[in-house]
Amino acid sequence: MGSEPSARIETVLQEERVFEPSQFVRKEASISGIDHYLKIIDSAKAHPERFWQEEALKELHWFKPFESVLDWSNPPFARWFDGGKTNVSYNCLDRHINNGKGEKVAIIWEGEPGDVRRITYKELFEEVCKTANALKDLGIKKGDLVALYMPMVPEAAIAMLACARIGAPHSVVFGGFSSEALRDRLIDGQAKVVITADGGFRKDKIISLKDAVDTALEDNSCPTVKSVLVVKRTNESVSFNAGRDYWWHELIPSQSKECPAEHMDSEDRLFVLYTSGSTGKPKGVVHTTSGYNLWAHLTFKWIFDVQDNEVYWCTADVGWITGHSYIVYGPLSNGSTTFMYEGVPRPSKPGAFWEIIQKHKINIFYTAPTAIRAFMKSGRSIPDNYDLSSLRLLGTVGEPINPEAWMWYREVIGRDNCPIVDTWWQTETGGVMISPIPTAVSTKPGSATMPLPGIEVDVVNAEGESVETDQGGYLVIKRPWPGMMRTIHGNSKRFRETYWEYLKPRDGELVYFAGDGARRDKDGYYWIMGRVDDVINVSGHRLGTMEIESALVSHPFVAEAAVVGRPDELKGEAIVAFVTLESGKEFSEDLLIILKSHVVQEIGAIARPEEIRFTNALPKTRSGKIMRRLLRSLASGEEVKGDTSTLEDRNVLDELRK
Ligand code: WTA
């Protein structure tokens, strides 16, 4: 069990502004207004299983209908839609083609150098089938894990769907992670194949993905990996290992365009996705077939409500859960057109996003608060140069959004006209859990508003008791839901302890602890206050402080390290590391740079510490625990408040203050 999640719950400023949903109500909407919304909420509450049953039968295709809706006889291990057989790639492709939508564009993609591809559902189906057949040729069978380490190219989505088609769970590793981080994930998941590219465009540079794969596989360190499939993207020269490496363009085109979708059991694995926790190495979050598909599908439909002629754009990377659920599975399961962009805005291209919205007439735009804050900083004159009138709905995800950024997003990007959906969720929840339904729920700047139909959440204290209105507490989810993670790959004990036993169970009922603090206001609106465990959120990227500490300590000069988050205007949080050195080693500016690069090498650029402070000792309790609360205050330049009586050596604090 981790340390007690305490002392990080503070009250936040009261926000009184309210924006009505009325202007947006349209009769084609999946939830047409407040009455319809309340009806769904009530029916989900009164008869949850019947509600999920009806939605699952209505929204997904079944080769064989399920026999039971939810089996919760062995909590926290849920089974949803047992006995049913379906296939996620069938739900995302075949059924739309069978419904006459084969010529509709499924994916519009724009590459970093400006190249554009439009792929219809029919074409996507054929590419997926060919890739699925190629994976079979490489010996991949149902149940084998396939790792993806890809840039943001359509082949990433094609590969995911190809895996789903043959029942091979995928494990997508964000292309910004280092070869070390990739290796850990390949070993933990026992991947059989790695799908990658020669390289990818990242900001104004080319990053070599294939080289990183080669390094990860060096010295036979991942013996389960038998083949590597390489997409040609940047045309950089790469080394090729005959008998192991294959070019995508040589292996795929000659394959058959037909590959029957495997009939998958509801609880067969769809994917594993690694995410950071407060202890140990990143954990492989396991999602299964039907429940995940239903949840990604329904939440996408309820919240974004994409009409048949509209284009939807989520700016995430497929390496994160947002890319899984809201670039690939949610939109495609609904038969929508999903836009995919390889690049990111940066000083050399500050208007990149707005240019795309104008050019591709994007209707629904979903991004992260960190991006919005960066746009705010560079000024409205940049977006004001573009025609953004196609937009009708704006979304945000990944970290708490401050009311100022929310208002700017609404006024400048949405021209006061587009509702904003602030969506709270996690890798573990599979899809959004708390969000306004834009046609039905009034919004308040900075609040994710209310849980979606069928989702019951609460804010509790460490005893598991509900707290009063406006009191901070721990955000918990009180009932199983279809998109919930099923376990941690290879570690069901850690799954139970981390999420279901972290807070004391009340009345023997297990509740899911999200790791976030929250407050509920008098109208029942939720205000997410950020992580309360040792996870930090840097630009919407989730990192475990312990992972960064381990990376630092793996350097031979470092004796001990403690990492905390410091509030940052742009990134949400910035990484601050306190480091003690091995005896005989000297602090120096050079060492500072070396240690920062060392972390980048061990994890990836997203984990680079903003600041490293050298010290002779870390503040510890008498039982030897590092007092992070003190370090957090020191890192953010605050006065150290609260009890320091358990501090073993008070001189340490004085030294650190200096
Ligand atoms: C944070 C990303 C406030 C939160 C989908 C959560 C948010 C973690 C919001 C999950 C939001 C995500 N408001 N905080 N709208 N959305 N978070 O697994 O701390 O990468 O626990 O999933 O991001 O990060 P993850």
Structural class: alpha/beta
Helix content: 25-40%
Largest sheet, spatial ordering of strands? 5-4-17-16-18-19-20
- Tell me the overall shape: globular
Q: Write down the Rg.
A: 24 Å
Based on the structure, what is the oligomeric state of the protein chains?
single chain
Query: Ligands in the structure?
Result: 5'-O-[(S)-ethoxy(hydroxy)phosphoryl]adenosine
Number of helices: 18
Major sheet size, sense and barrel closure = 7 strands, mixed
Fold blueprint:
Blueprint: H1 34-46, H2 48-59, E1 70-71, E2 79-80, E3 85-86, H3 88-98, E4 105-110, E5 116-120, H4 121-137, E6 146-149, H5 154-166, E7 170-172, H6 179-189, E8 193-197, E9 200-202, E10 205-207, H7 209-217, E11 227-231, E12 245-247, H8 248-251, E13 264-265, E14 269-275, E15 283-288, H9 289-304, E16 311-314, H10 321-333, E17 337-341, H11 352-360, E18 364-367, H12 369-378, E19 393-397, H13 403-413, E20 420-423, E21 457-460, E22 472-477, E23 487-488, H14 492-500, E24 512-520, E25 526-531, E26 535-538, E27 541-544, H15 545-553, E28 558-568, E29 572-581, H16 589-602, E30 611-614, H17 628-635, H18 650-657
Parallel strand pairs: 4-17, 6-7, 6-8, 8-11, 11-12, 16-17, 16-18, 18-19, 19-20, 29-30
Antiparallel strand pairs: 1-2, 3-13, 4-5, 9-10, 14-15, 15-23, 21-22, 22-24, 24-25, 26-27, 28-29
Helix pairs in contact: 1-2, 3-4, 3-5, 3-10, 4-5, 6-7, 9-10, 12-13
The structure holds 5'-O-[(S)-ethoxy(hydroxy)phosphoryl]adenosine (WTA).
